[in-house]
Fold:
Amino acid sequence: MIDMHTHLDLYPDALKIIAKVNKDNIFTLAVTTSPRAWSATSKVFENYKNIYVSVGLHPEIVETKANEVNLLIDCIKNTNFVGEVGIDGSIRFSQTLSLQTSIFEQVLRECEAQNGKVISIHSRGAESNVLDLIEKYPKCGIPILHWFSGTIKELERATKLGCWFSVNQQMINTKKGLSLIEKMPMNRLLPESDGPFTMIDKKLIYPWEAINIINEISSLWNLREDDVLIQFKDNLKSLLNQTESF
Ligand code: MN
Structure:
């Protein structure tokens, strides 16, 4: 159906599953972790019309990829889709926090300079920092907070700033995740797999399984599953319509 955030190039069986992803999903956003990976992946996926590849630089690996920042900024003008970018505030990456912040700011500034982009954003443990920067660049486009795990207050702030959200099965499986999803705006929510980094019962989640959140969303929203599907499709349509003015 729809997968708004997957690392399709990192699945061990990526080449074998591309055709099925393209057939089963009407839209898949294959995020990348570096601009070089984006160039390579774009070439491999170019004939699959339902798969979009976004250019990114994952905050967890900025230390080894900082030399690709100029390339990243340069590539942004060639696509409507940017990600995975953002800031990770975990202790493990605290040494690169200022570098991460500086790169994320450069990305948002460039997205704004380019009239807006769809941006898939990582914000774990750095939600307030991420929102501060989104606020500073209000014309950066459509920020989508992927796997948002901040506080309810931060969620409310993100919603006011116009952020979208992509949510996965692992979020659904936690109380905190569910309580956040419940408060996300229905018309700005889309499914994601975040595979191959997410697992259910020790099995990888594939892009065509991102939609498996539908059962719980249907109870949260008090809607029939068919109507949840319609809502997701409408959301995707409204997102893609907005990219036409980018
Ligand atoms: Mn990811």
